[in-house]
């Protein structure tokens, strides 16, 4: 160390003092502490620590003392673990400050940190669309149109992305919900015999968007709904901060899947016309029109319940994969045994429903999930015993991962509820003002 006097130095971290010799600091495992050895002036020291006492040769760091104590245990013994009853992200910030990384943690704590960071990044991704109203993007200097333009864009983002942020956002959300409901009602009603076109029109003609079909009530309602959804999507894309991130968001992908089939159907009708060789496109058009059912998922933008479901599925993908593995393993075992007992032993009572293992897989799935349609069932005594074991095994295997998914669902619901409550408080303040 080229600055300071005395054979030893004192580190004061949040009120807890640690005394070291000068030579120890030279190769200290913590990068921030080792930087003190090369300081030439008091100004250099103050760039590393928060304060310096020349008389005591004491360096003060305004950091969490208990967290630094656990970091010192890592320096001495080589094991780094989280502080009990301390947020993993807060301790990770302390590690970054002192020059450590997540790889320095023990394996169990690394998994906790990865899970916590995954949950937090998902939660922040849900909060990002409103424009970080509580983080203040206006302080980052990213508004090219000036302060007033930035505030206006921020308000527009909150209006379109967060239904509880203002009165205008609530009105916009209500109108959007009404359009979704109307479009779903029209879609369901169009499958009724009374709603269909006259019988003298072919299936392909009813599937194409001709001038006559557009002038029909269902065609007019569909065009209006598509126009509203298209305008809403375009406006939200224009006012978004990150266009690439906007396109990658799941709800925006669902919006595109719900809107594009209409325009594809119109274009296909325009280009195919009445060409008899392309009348097979009628089936494709009907499939594209049926994709309007994705509009129901648009309600997730306005209801916490659907948001909670999506966030839970995103966080519990490991448990979901584990559940699918359980089902696949059990399905492979029970389907092979049931096919052998019911059809493969040649006991004089062959069950044709179990002629192959793939056919028996269907019986295993409906048995493990306790659905039991009754379309196929074992008739031999060994097969019925195996069926009982299959049902009991299905209950146990399906119940094991459900507990983890349930706890994650409750946590996601409370997080989204808390976020909605914060926007509700801002809405109350708007009413008062």
From TrEMBL:
UniProt-listed GO biological process terms: action potential; protein homooligomerization; regulation of potassium ion transport
GO CC annotations, alphabetized: cytoplasm; voltage-gated potassium channel complex
Keywords: Cell membrane, Cytoplasm, Ion channel, Ion transport, Membrane, Potassium, Potassium channel, Potassium transport, Transmembrane, Transmembrane helix, Transport, Voltage-gated channel
Encoding gene per record: Kcng3
InterPro entries assigned to the protein according to its UniProt record, in alphabetical order: BTB/POZ_dom, Ion_trans_dom, K_chnl_volt-dep_Kv, K_chnl_volt-dep_Kv5/Kv9, SKP1/BTB/POZ_sf, T1-type_BTB, VG_K_chnl, Volt_channel_dom_sf
PANTHER family: POTASSIUM VOLTAGE-GATED CHANNEL SUBFAMILY G MEMBER 3, VOLTAGE-GATED POTASSIUM CHANNEL
Residue ranges of the TM segments: 167-192, 219-239, 251-273, 293-313, 320-341, 353-373, 385-409
Membrane topology classification: Multi-pass membrane protein
Quaternary organization: Heterotetramer with KCNB1. Does not form homomultimers.
Family annotation (SUPFAM superfamilies): POZ domain, Voltage-gated potassium channels
Keyword ATP-binding in annotation: no
Pfam families: BTB_2, Ion_trans
Protein name: Voltage-gated potassium channel regulatory subunit KCNG3
The UniProt record lists the keyword Transmembrane helix: yes
Cell compartment(s), UniProt: Cell membrane; Cytoplasm
Gene Ontology MF annotations: delayed rectifier potassium channel activity; potassium channel regulator activity
Protein species of origin: Indicator maculatus
Alphabetical list of Gene3D superfamilies matching this protein: 1.10.287.70, Potassium Channel Kv1.1, Chain A, Voltage-gated potassium channels. Chain C
Residue ranges, annotated region (Disordered): 124-148
């Amino acid at each position: 160390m080229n600055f300071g006097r005395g054979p030893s130095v004192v580190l004061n971290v949040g009120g807890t003092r640690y005394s070291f010799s000068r030579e120890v600091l030279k190769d200290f495992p913590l990068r921030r502490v080792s930087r003190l050895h090369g300081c030439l002036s008091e100004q250099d020291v103050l760039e590393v620590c928060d304060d310096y006492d020349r008389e005591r040769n004491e360096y003060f760091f305004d950091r969490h003392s208990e967290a630094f104590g656990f970091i010192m245990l890592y320096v001495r013994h080589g094991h780094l673990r989280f502080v009990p009853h301390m947020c993993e992200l807060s301790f990770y910030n302390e590690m970054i400050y002192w020059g450590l990384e997540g790889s320095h943690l023990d394996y169990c704590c690394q998994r906790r940190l990865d899970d916590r960071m995954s949950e937090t990044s998902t939660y922040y991704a849900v909060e990002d669309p409103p424009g970080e109203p509580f983080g203040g993007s206006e302080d980052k200097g990213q508004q090219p149109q000036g302060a007033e333009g930035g505030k206006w864009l921020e308000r527009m983002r909150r209006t379109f992305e967060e239904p509880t942020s203002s009165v205008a956002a609530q009105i916009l959300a209500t109108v959007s919900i009404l359009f979704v409901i109307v479009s779903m009602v029209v879609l369901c009603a169009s499958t009724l015999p009374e709603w269909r076109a006259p019988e003298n029109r072919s299936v392909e003609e009813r599937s194409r968007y001709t001038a006559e079909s557009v002038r029909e009530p269902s065609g007019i309602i569909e065009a209006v709904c598509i126009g509203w959804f298209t305008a809403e999507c375009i406006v939200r894309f224009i006012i978004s901060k990150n266009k690439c991130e906007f396109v990658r968001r799941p709800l925006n992908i669902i919006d595109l899947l719900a809107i594009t089939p209409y325009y594809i159907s119109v274009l296909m009708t325009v280009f195919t016309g009445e060409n008899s060789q392309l009348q097979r496109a009628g089936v494709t058009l009907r499939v594209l029109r049926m994709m309007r059912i994705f509009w129901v998922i648009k309600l997730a933008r306005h209801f916490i319940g659907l948001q909670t479901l999506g966030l839970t599925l995103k966080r519990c993908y490991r448990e979901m994969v584990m559940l699918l593995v359980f089902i696949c393993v059990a399905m492979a075992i029970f389907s092979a045994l049931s096919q052998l007992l019911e059809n493969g032993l040649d006991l004089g009572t062959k069950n044709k429903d179990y002629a192959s293992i793939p056919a028996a897989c269907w019986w295993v799935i409906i048995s493990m999930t306790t659905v039991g349609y009754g379309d196929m069932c074992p008739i031999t005594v060994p097969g019925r015993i195996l069926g009982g074991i299959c049902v009991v095994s299905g209950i146990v295997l399906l119940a094991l991962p459900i507990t983890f998914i349930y706890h994650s669902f409750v946590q996601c619901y409370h997080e989204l509820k808390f976020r909605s409550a914060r926007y509700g408080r801002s809405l109350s303040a708007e009413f008062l003002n």
